[in-house]
TrEMBL record:
SUPFAM superfamilies: Nucleotidylyl transferase. GO terms for biological process: tryptophanyl-tRNA aminoacylation. Its EC number is 6.1.1.2. GO terms for cellular component: cytosol. Belongs to the class-I aminoacyl-tRNA synthetase family. Pfam families: tRNA-synt_1b. It is found in: Cytoplasm. It catalyses: tRNA(Trp) + L-tryptophan + ATP = L-tryptophyl-tRNA(Trp) + AMP + diphosphate + H(+). Keywords: Aminoacyl-tRNA synthetase, ATP-binding, Cytoplasm, Ligase, Nucleotide-binding, Protein biosynthesis. This is Tryptophan--tRNA ligase. The lineage of its organism: Bacteria, Bacillati, Actinomycetota, Actinomycetes, Micrococcales. ATP binds at Q9, P10, T11, G18, N19, G147, E148, D149, I186, K195, M196, S197, K198, S199.
Length: 333
């Protein structure tokens, strides 16, 4: 079967609803038809300087959330990036075919380095997209299910694969991005023009999958909207309401049209928010319960990750060997 690969950074103790709706729902849907690889990208997370204990804990809890959200480790390969050294080995090779200016144009780097300032910005944040390209290309990946914010990195990955193949001979499969429609960019509830983000300064805008239900209910009820008082779908003029409608539609399965009809009339923001809060709790409560169970047995979780790493390494080592040979590295002993 053709392959898919995707990952999340263990940069927080919990995923948020954007990670879940923008990426994970598609992972789970696609794992039936694809040979799926889901990676906890701890090397990417190192770019924001976590405490070692924090990174260890978050790496396990992120893996647990993959499984709690429906990834089946019997069907899909679930592994940790740093367990497969081929990722950083291939990243070096890709660094050497990436233009400096090309990397400097990446908006994620510009956003994150802008926020962190010169002092807080390390070179790893800059070379992040080439490591991500390595993550993908090592598995001969056909499709990469991600949110809208990763579109530019996917384009770079395709460019690098094409460039490598043209220069050194056919080595990498050129992957396609799979970006969902309405849920590709779930916005912050406090700042509905910015995406929900694990590393956002203002966590009040994020619906975290592992928060207590009452915390999320409160966040939904205090979501920033507008004073126009009519529920309409207008992402430009009414980004807060549009975001709530998208979340509702994704979780309930109702179309946005149906919802706009349902909440027609004056003063329906409260009703919309109440229903969204209810829908969020319905997914996150069982999700959280399952994560608690999985985390309660870290030995079993580590066993799953070790088996995943072994399977991932088989594929990754073969691709790396091809790439090393293509660029002219001498065969090792
Ligand atoms: P960080 O702030 O640490 O970068 P993040 O919230 O952006 O965290 P990532 O681990 O970088 O999450 O991304 C994991 C996956 O979730 C990616 O596929 C990404 O495109 C997707 N994603 C992230 N935020 C959103 C969002 N707000 N809406 C939809 N998809 C999202
Ligand atoms: Mg991110």
């Amino acid at each position: 079967a053709p392959r898919i690969l995707s990952g999340m950074q263990p940069t927080h103790d919990s995923l948020h609803l954007g990670n879940y709706l923008g990426a994970q729902v598609n992972w789970v849907r696609m794992q039936a038809d694809f040979d799926a690889f889901f990676c906890v990208v701890d090397q990417h997370a190192l770019t924001v300087g976590p405490e070692p204990e924090e990174l260890r804990r978050r790496t396990r809890v992120t893996a647990a959330q993959y499984i709690a959200g429906g990834v089946d480790p019997e069907k899909s390969t679930v592994f940790v990036q740093s367990h497969v050294p081929e990722h950083s080995q291939l990243a070096w090779v890709l660094n050497c075919i990436t233009g400096y200016g090309e990397a400097a144009r990446m908006t994620q780097f510009k956003d994150k380095s802008g926020k962190r300032g010169a002092e807080g910005t390390n070179v790893g944040l800059f070379t992040y997209p080439m490591l991500m390209a390595a993550d993908i290309l090592l598995y001969d990946t056909s499709v990469v299910p991600v949110g809208e914010d990763q579109r530019q990195h996917l384009e770079l990955t395709r460019d690098l694969a094409g460039r490598f193949n043209a220069r050194y001979g056919d080595t990498f499969r050129i992957p396609e991005a799979h970006i969902p429609g309405e849920t590709a960019k779930i916005m912050s509830l406090q700042e509905p023009t910015a995406k929900m983000s694990k590393s956002a300064d203002n966590q009040a805008g994020n619906l975290m999958m592992l928060d207590e239900p009452k915390v999320n209910t409160k966040k939904v009820k205090s979501a920033v909207t507008d004073t126009d008082n009519a529920v309409r779908f207008d992402a430009e003029a009414k980004p807060g309401i549009a975001n709530l409608l998208r979340i509702h539609a994704a979780l309930s399965g109702d179309s946005i049209e149906t919802l706009v009809e349902r909440y027609a009339g004056e003063n329906k923001y409260g009703a919309l928010k109440g229903d969204v809060a209810e829908l969020v709790i319905q997914v996150q409560a069982p999700f959280k319960a399952r994560v608690d169970e999985l985390i309660g047995d870290p030995a079993e979780l580590d066993r799953v990750l070790a088996a995943g790493a072994e399977r991932a390494r088989e594929v990754a080592a073969a691709t790396l060997a091809r790439a090393y040979d293509a660029v002219g590295f001498l065969p090792g002993a």
